[in-house]
Amino acid sequence: MAKQEVVKKESNLPVAFDMEQDANLGFEEADGDSYAIPFLAILQKLSGQCDPDKASYIEGAKAGMFMDTVTNEVFDGEKGIHIIPCHYQRVFAKWVPRDEGGGFKGIIPPDSPEIDNAHRNESGVFVTDDGLELRDTRYHYVFYSVDGTHWKPALISLTSTQIKKSKKWMAMMQGLKIEGQNGPFTPPMFSHKYLVTSITESKGDDTWKGWVFTPESYLSADEAHLYESCKKFREQMAAGKVQIQEDGEEETQKRF
């Protein structure tokens, strides 16, 4: 018998490559309109995510839970989640009135002529000449984490009765001081972690779920990479590199 030849089978595994060297390749043509930054919203009793008869229903979702509006993940509002504030922006959001179908129509700065030319309706809401409602809104750009280890960027939108929560939180952040070489200074916004939970609030016959921000701790020396990620995120948001697209279903994050 002829001696059988042993044929060495070539491996079909990929050759070695360096992903770090090719970091961010493929995203060169992406602009601010190419990304959707998730909103971190509190579900309300009328949110579609809590209603089994709605297409937006999420199994297990309940009023008071937090929701990532991109991944549709929901988190326990009583237990809370960890957040790191990175950037703050005050805007006026333009909305089609709810009784006309609702819908987000963009944002304008507080010094916009549209605000000066608007008039108040019977509910005290600013309305533009073309019928859009202008709502004073406080955007808090944050990193959030459920387990304190894995962090994601998100945007918290506070308006109406929740504006006072924004003001209190901003004062809390501004009040932090660190002793430096030239005396005490205010550390960057993204130097500190907070625990955010939800709480039931009411006015008259109305009840809703609101925000509670509680200080936790400064970022540690072992979290330098997280600190730099927050800093980069702040720079991107301050430069307006991501377009804001609020959820069209207003009941997701009830505006009380």
What can you tell me about this protein's structure?
The chain is mainly β and 256 residues long. The chain has a domain at 36-88 and 143-244. 12% of the residues lie in helices and 33% in strands. It is built from three helices and 13 strands. The chain has helices at 113-117, 163-174, 224-238; strands spanning 40-42, 66-68, 74-75, 81-95, 104-108, 119-120, 126-127, 133-145, 152-159, 178-180, 183-185, 192-203, 206-218. The strands form three sheets. Strands 4, 5, 6, 7, 8, 9, 12 and 13 form an eight-stranded antiparallel sheet that branches. The protein has a three-stranded antiparallel sheet with strand order 1-2-3, with no helix packed on it. A hairpin with a 6-residue loop joins strand 8 and strand 9. The longest helix is centred in the last third of the chain and has 15 residues, at 224-238. It is globular and about 60 Å long. The N and C termini lie far apart (89 Å). 25% of the residues are buried. Mean pLDDT is 87; it is low at 248-256.
In short:
The protein contains three helices and 13 strands. It has 256 residues and is mainly beta.
What labels would you give this structure?
256 residues; mainly beta; eight-stranded antiparallel sheet; three-stranded antiparallel sheet; disordered C terminus
Topology:
Elements: E1 40-42, E2 66-68, E3 74-75, E4 81-95, E5 104-108, H1 113-117, E6 119-120, E7 126-127, E8 133-145, E9 152-159, H2 163-174, E10 178-180, E11 183-185, E12 192-203, E13 206-218, H3 224-238
